[in-house]
Amino acid sequence: MKLAIQAAGKTDVGLVRANNEDNFGYDVREGIFVVCDGMGGQAAGETASKIAVETVLKCFQQDHGVTNSHVLGRGFEEVSERANALGNAVQLANQAIQEAAARNPGQSGMGSTIVAVCTGGSQFSIANVGDSRIYLIRGDAIQQLTSDHSLVMEQVRRGLMTMEEAEKSEMQNVIVRALGTEESVEPDLEDHEFVPGDLLVLCSDGLSRYVKENTILETIRSTENLDEACAKLIEAAKSGGSDDNITCLLVRAREQDQSWGGRLRNLISPANNSRHGSS
Predict the structure, then answer these.
(1) Residue 61: what are its φ and ψ, rounded to 5°?
(2) Nearest to 126 by CA among 182, 198, 68, 180
(3) Closest-CA residue to 114 (of 190, 51, 158)
(4) How many CB atoms lie within 10 A of CB 58?
(5) CA–CA separation, 45 vs 112, rounded Å?
(6) Mind listing the domains of the chain with CATH numbers?
(7) Disulfide: which of 41, 202, 206, 272 matches 246 by Cβ 3.0-4.6 Å?
(8) Closest to 277 in 3D by CA, of 253, 255, 254, 245
(9) Residue 271: predicted pLDDT
């Protein structure tokens, strides 16, 4: 079954921060979607997240995700070629951030989280480093697909802390894996089925920490327009007390209309484009 992909994204500096260290980008034609949350002094976080987004998009726009180019880390036999291409792009982004920091001592130590989705046919692959998240909304259910690489979630997984304690912890923003902080990075990679009606939510922790899953689900289900849904989710994060930058990227799968009129609408749809977002 052929799927038509629609996407919309929005990023906001939020209510407290003076600058926006989040970045996002997507290319519907190439089926690649990315959200990054930077970290570092002054403008370094913005730089790191921008480098990460641009590097991953370029891998798919120039090479169409081909994996026979230089692979920086090990391949993963348990996931698809598409997922491995995504993993390679993430590792290239890690290298690009490190090289940029080496050229500019003022950006030493900068880094970024990343969540990325690559779609193809009736499948999609995901990659994750850090505590930005990907949710899948299917029917009346929402599921978090990524695992946070954060100190508190590591303690939850080890049984040293409850989820309730983690949500109240002052250490929520301490992440244990990020792009740019080490010479190499190993992203979490997964493959999933994509069916008509599915909607993916890629977001920074400025949204996920302040908007409950049921609110995300209700907002998506009550708002057909993806741009409006992004705006409502960001406002919900602000209303929930978010003190961080807030980014939301929505990706929806629909059954492709195979009629002549449907093919024409798909061709000229504003969803079939590339977009970058930052402050």
Answers:
(1) -75, -35
(2) 198
(3) 51
(4) 17
(5) 7
(6) 3-273 (3.60.40.10)
(7) 206
(8) 245
(9) 41
> What is the reported pTM?
0.88
Other C-beta atoms within 10 Å of 269: how many? 13
3-state secondary structure the chain: CCEEEEEEEEEECCCCCCCCCEEEEEECCCCEEEEEEEECCCCHHHHHHHHHHHHHHHHHHHHCCCCCCCCCCCCCCCCCHHHHHHHHHHHHHHHHHHHHHHHCHHHCCCEECEEEEEEECCEEEEEEECCCEEEEEECCEEEECCCCCEHHHHHHHCCCCCHHHHHHCCCCCCECCCECCCCCCCCEEEEEECCCCCEEEEECHHHHCCCCHHHHHHHHHHCCCHHHHHHHHHHHHHHCCCCCCEEEEEEEEEECCCCHHHHHHHHHCCCCCEEEECC
pLDDT in tens, 128-167: 999 999 999 999 999 999 999 877 767 666 766 776 666 6
Separation of alpha carbons 132 and 114, rounded Å: 6
Phi then psi for residue 241, to 5 deg, are 95, 20
Tens-place pLDDT, residues 194-252: 999 999 999 999 999 999 999 999 999 999 999 999 999 999 999 999 999 999 999 99
Report the greatest alpha carbon distance in the chain.
Answer: 58
pLDDT score for 172: 65
Question: Which amino acid, residue 269?
Answer: S
Q: Give CA–CA dist 148/15, Å, rounded.
A: 24
The Cα 86–Cα 83 span in angstroms is 5
In contact, 148 and 165? CB cutoff 8 Å? no
- Contact 211/184 with Cβ under 8 angstroms? no
